[in-house]
Request: fold
Amino acid sequence: MKRLATLLVVVAVLASFVAACAAPPPEVIEKEVVEKEVPVTVEVVKEVVVEKEVVETKIVEKVVTATPEPTPERTERERTLIMSYPFEPSQIDPHAYFEAEINMPYNAVYETFYDLWGPDGEFTPRLAESYEWSEDGKTLTFKLRKGVKFHTGEDFNAETAKWNFDRLFDLNLSTAGNYAPYIDSVEAVDDYTLAFHMKEPTPGYHFMFAGNWAMKFVCPGAVEEHKTADDPWAHEWFKDHMCGTGPYKFVSYEHGQRLVIEKFDDYWGGWEGPHFDKMIERIVPESSTQRMLLGRGEIDLTCMPLELEDIKALQQEKGITCKSDPTILIFVISVKATDAGETGPIMSQVKVRQALAYAFNYDAVMENIMGIKGSRISDMLFNPAFEGYDPDHFVYTYDLEKARELLAEAGYPDGGFDLELMWLEGFPDYPRIAEMYQADLAKLGITLKVFGAPPATFLDRIAKPETTPDLVLRPRASGNPISYAWIEGWTTKMFPPNGLNEGYYYNERFDELWKAATVELDDAKRAEMVREAAAIASEEVPVIWIAAVNDVMCFTDSLDGFVHSPWYMYVYWPYNLYRE
Amino acid sequence: MRLQYIVQRFMWMVVSLIGISLITFVVSHMVPADPIRAVAGMEAKGEQVEELRRRYGLDRPLPEQYLRWVANLARGDLGLSIRTGQPVMEDLRRYAPATAELTLVAMFLVAVVGLPLGVVSALNKDGILDHLSRIIALSGVSMPIFWVSLILQIVFFSRLGVLPADGRVDVMINPPLRVTGLYTVDSLLAGDMVAFKSAARHLVLPAVNLAFGSLAVLTRMVRSSMLDVLGEDYVRTARAKGLRERRVILLHALRNALIPTTTTMALQIGALMGGVFLVELMFSWPGLGFYAMRSITLIDFPSIMGVAILMTTVYAIFNLLADLLYGLLDPRISIEGRSE
Reply:
């Protein structure tokens, strides 16, 4: 009897698993939603017929074939955008660190004073309506938009905006680094006027309030509700929750799995026109798995570039498109320019660094490795939006003979020295780029040791000029078109650990030009200073400029409303996306 | 005496844990890396980095850091994860149930498939079934986990569309309210059959993938043990007494063959816990492997040590259970004798 009972239990367990593993019934949840939304059907059909006649006709035809019922309401799945990212963010408090792994939800839940659109960086109002600089360039005043509400229901105004800056400065984490060193104080002039009193004249600083890394505004009400004695700014709560002013509000976050947001009914922009009701970010580490999920319609959009092989395969699939858009992210090789360390005497010679720039096969990398994922860049002011951009600037090309001549002039006619190149892990193209460069340098008699390093190792190696590698292959990005802020990256101020001038490049004139540009209020003079600095860098090669990285996002053809700006990474503007 | 033996084993387990923690600590700190700098963000300024370093106690001398860590461990505190900023214990609570669920189902599969397959192979030595099980075993030990993952995903998800390829539950379904953290159990407790079905379906491919290698080892082990036992005098005697063949196989032969098999199963826990890292990555399974992989990339010492300690503890407990099981399987094996 006991044996029989055991047998029955085992059979029952197995049977439940077998039953569970059978092919799934058609979306049970969707059925529930359809039932719930029936009363709204007529209204929606009316709307659709007027506004999107052609698109909806297709759907009606499909349904009529299956059932004689009138046009059905869209299912929950159809009203939901499912996107994939390969990594889980470490935390999601926008006042802590920037996490690219969550950029779509960030830009759906949070908003900034301004947006940057187009390759020229068009400065477009969002939470602010206008801005004004004082005569002395030391006070920047924003007029804020009225009628904006936080997801907690309270008003967005000068007081709550100022409170957000208090939180940012008090937490003093990475994001604060863009503001704290420059802003002396923040003043709520009236309900909808916010003034920033700068420590020094800071021309162009208004761009710091737009773009990828710009200040985002969190709900004071949520902080009030979740703060503790040890955590007065509710940073712990915001590590895995979101609350802002954007079109979508936070629903849930299951670590390692998914983040769900849904439309915020009181959004100031309104809900006219087609939009998604809900968005889900899925975390799918493997590129091949993302490709399969997209192929089967389980996700609508892959937000970070897949492996080139997977992109190529998806481009062959019916009903899927892979779109390539330029971004602010670039790939560069930082070149050691200090005489410290074993290779210092070699690398500190300008002619050696120039030879290294001529030995890089730019076109082959574009053709064979980057494909649609990148495009060639030229020099420090590679972006036409940068103040001081010069279309006739000097561009290094692949020329081994020229490289050999320069090495001979530097006293190394047959090379005969060893260098090391470290790439920052996380970008699958880097090992291939490094190996290609290794082969070219071998032709010049230079032995290149290549290796990858995770961020923690990378930062440890560059911490001292004696240990910094000769060449560092890694991404860089400028979040806005402020040229002097961009070239600051190669000044002595940015020697590690205060910045990422890991080549320890130093040129007195370059530093002077940068410093002067930061306080120069005359646009033309400032542009000329930056242009001169870029020319110095072109001559002295602290960097080998490889490629601008494109956002390659693959998606189902039913999606539309793509708005992409090169000033944001891995983002199609969530509010504008919809399903046809 | 049995209690004394268990206490003694626990003491050894504590010594092992201290050893493992020391090795993990030394190795993770020997790596030339600065996790705080990485976590602070590439653009963080020097003083912000130093403030974070102080916050995590990483500005203290290494021996002091280790001793503090051990003292905190005694209070059940594994420190703060550098990457997530959360207590490591909280992170482990969040991610461990997914791994536990996957590993338990894989173990279940290994046991319910491996045992009968091994027995049948032994009884049909060099027959078709034996060859078939040999092929399965050889495939299981020779095919890399990531490759099997891809094949399973391509066949059952991409081509046939019968099983999901990633995650713990359908993305459009809300996960069940957390009680144990095991989705299949929690959904049953909540009476949510939609979630249960989804969770069970999502378990199939990763569990099969994880079980495959251990299944091969166990099948061959059972086969070999059974063949040894089937040639023993007491089996011949049992048959000579006229006992039914099924009784001879199950009660006399299999029971004795289970002793080495139990050891193999206990050791395979280690293999499963190792394999789970890759399987979780391939199937986007948000468990300890998934968590640890990200932590390793950022050299997040506290998280790495937390995962190592947890996995070592589980492994040691399963080995202890295996030792205790010997006594049940064969009364001639006494704990007292083993402990002497």
Observations:
- Chain B touches chain A through 67 residues (CB under 8 Å).
- The mean pLDDT of chain B is 86.
- The longest helix of chain B spans residues 193-230.
- The radius of gyration of chain B is 24 Å.
